Structure formats: structure tokens, C-alpha cells
Amino acid sequence: AQSLRCYTCQEPTEISRCKTAVVCPPTATVCTTTLHSVETGYPFFGNITVTRACEEECLSYDGIGASRPKSCCYTDLC
User: Fold this and answer.
1) Mind listing the UniProt keywords for this protein, alphabetically (predicted)?
2) Cα–Cα nearest to 68, from 52, 45, 44, 46
3) pTM above 0.85, yes or no
4) Helix, strand, coil percentages, rounded to 5, for the chain
5) What is the pLDDT of residue 70?
6) Which of 13, 55, 69, 76 is the Cys-Cys partner for 9 at CB 3.0 to 4.6 Å?
7) What is the mean pLDDT of the chain?
């Protein structure tokens, strides 16, 4: 099987600039995007920063009290 490719950025980066593509290790099955800050009010003025990574499984932290919602996807460069 071919390895998954994900966009990654280890430091919080504006979502439109987080475009560094890497080939994930063979054990990774999911690309994750973790939201770090969202301005309230007008979203199109908001500065949304994210970190993105390859991970082995989708562990989401969007339970009660979570401050950093994480989304997961399973296709190349999603």
C-alpha cells in the first residue's frame, strides 16, 4: 500500500499557508488538523491558525471543555 500524504505544520500557522506536504510513515492512517484560534464575530476577518500532522489514529479532543477541536481525514493532501 502507498503511504498517505498529509499537509503538515508543527507550529500554529494560518490555514491558507499550512501547505507543506509530507509522505507519512507507513503506520500513519490519518491526517489531522487542530484548530488553535478562531476570532469570533466575522469569520472572514478571522485569523484561523492550525497545526497539521500525520497520525496513527484519529484521537479527537472535541469533548466538553476542549479548547482545540481536531478534525481528521483519510485521503491524500486532504
Assistant:
1) Signal
2) 52
3) no
4) 10, 40, 50
5) 86
6) 13
7) 83
The residues that bridge with 60 in the sheet, in sequence order, are none
Cell output for 70: 481536531
User: 36-60 pLDDT, tens per residue?
Assistant: 866 555 455 557 889 999 999 987 6
Domain ranges of the chain: 5-73
End-to-end Cα separation, the chain, in angstroms = 18
**Cβ–Cβ < 8 Å for 74, 36:** no
Question: Which of the four CATH numbers 2.60.40.1180, 3.60.140.10, 2.60.40.10, 2.10.60.10 does domain 5-73 have?
Answer: 2.10.60.10
**pLDDT for the residue numbered 56:** 94
Instruction: Kindly tell me the sign of the dihedral angle through the C-alpha atoms of 61, 5, 9, 41.
Output: negative
8 A C-beta contact, residue 30 and residue 57: yes
